[in-house]
Amino acid sequence: MTLHQKVADPPRGHAEKHLSAPRPTGASAPSDSTRSFPQDVRPVSSSHSVIFPSFEVVELPQLTIPHSRPGGFAVTRKKGFRVYSRSVSRVTRATVLAGTLAVLAAGQSIRAADPIAPARSRLGINLSGIADWNTEHPFADAFKTSRPWISQRQGAPWGQGPKLAVDKLGWVQRLETNAWAETLLFTHGHAPPGTYFCLYEGEGLLEVRGSGRVRQQQPGRIEIDLDPSKGPLVLQLRHTDPQRPLRNIRLYMPDCGLDGPAGPFHPAFLARWREFNTIRFMDWMETNGSEQHEWADRPTPNHATYSQRGVPAEVMIELCNRLGAHPWFCMPHRASDDYVRQFARLVRERLRPDLIVYVEYSNELWNSMFVQHRYAASEGRRLGFAQKDWEAAWRFTAWRSRQVHQIWEETLGDRKRLVRVIASQAANPYVTEQILTFQDSARHFDTLAIAPYFSLNVSPQGSETLPPAAEVANWSLEKLLDHVRQHSIPEAIEHMRQQRKLADRYGLRLIAYEAGQHLVGVGGAENLEPLSRLLQEANRHPAMKEFYQTYLDAWLREAGGDLCCLFSSVGTYSKWGSWGLLEGATQVSSPKFDAVIQWNRAHPRPPTP
Fold first, then answer.
1. What is the DSSP letter of 485?
2. Is the pLDDT of residue 575 over 90?
3. What's the rounded Cα separation, in Å, for the pair 436 and 506?
């Protein structure tokens, strides 16, 4: 097995079953868009403005780029997954422009209408989780996406070195004899070739392996010629001085640097999502299975990598300040009241005053595949809300969500800045009603959030509307696309209609926390290679543009056209799903991405009076 084969794929678990919440006897049982995901693991002006925390404005040339979920569930793992205002120089303005144009040069720009400001957009995006196999490359410092240190020992199997002495920020403090630590980056490629600058502090020996080649080297600085399309980059820590350990490693991508006007972010990443109203940070926060409980458990800007605990709140706030997009935060299911209060205080102090905050308690607490569902069920039983797991989880969701929202409201001190989100299962109105009616909870929320995917969940046994996976795998691409057109999209539209009735009944806005296609093998069917190949081909087919436009038109017509957060931004396709609107940062156009950008520009919100 080559090094590239060994490290290119993230750890995988079982493909998981098709799930829906239990229903009482006699209740209808519509199917749901439940995802399959691994256990471990969205007149022409002359300029566009990027807003800084200090509210300086940097004018960038007008860019008309197409926007397009990385292996969204491949990067949503079971484990828990800084830069402030500065003056802007002419040199750094040129840097961000050069970086953006370099990406645009890889493909043709699209243009259906003039770009719109985030405030006029109806769409949001779920950003893909941070990992070494992430292909969005959102940060100027790529080391923030590196894999946590892997321990190696001479003569031992790969990854089976001695336990590493690592400090609380993730830096190795000492190494045993004949042992070393290494980390991986760009394991799924899609990063630009060129010269990468690696900077570090402390004393030690850092060696470059994999697809990187040392161009120049001196203490504290290595220039690396790198082409990620040829394989991952491996950085090996061969020696570190226990008295002054090698630390604070940064790896700046081409045309990026600490003093660039894009700050901690890659300029092409900022350009890609500059027209979206809201950024949902579920995967950036490692929400599913989060191990964060107290404020001290949170990631900070000084942590070595964001691939272990998630992205710091400071960085997420910084991103929204620059884009002018509203943040959507998912509070960890085990977060203490103090954790919630400290998070809200940080947002109050740092978020631009013209932006509002969407706050959701965890993610899909109704979904029994997640750790947070089991926690909610256990807590609901303990509090005497119900004896059955699913009913206890629904009621605890309503109860704890009200508490979380109350803390946010008290801390922000401005009720108008807070959107209190309660989420439910799109395909099951019964679940929604149970959550909203428990202790009259509906009157404490502002929005009902659903994920009305248009789905093709193919299982080994088949279903009422689909034959077994082995048969579907032999379908022609045209037959599969026709099934999506005739069955999947109409089913999703019906889910929208039913949930809108409930939202209207209880005086809530209807929004989508996730949305888009959901074509995936489940329950073992993901291991059928011909099936996975067929579903991936469907995601790349021009018909997908038609599907997304039809789907978003229905959201406007049937659901009311409020905020719809697509899932997800950028990521490679695999047997676990084809979630990315784009497959990598080097891609600038796809049927899904183009449809979303064009629809967004063609259907702006009415201007605010």
1. I
2. yes
3. 8
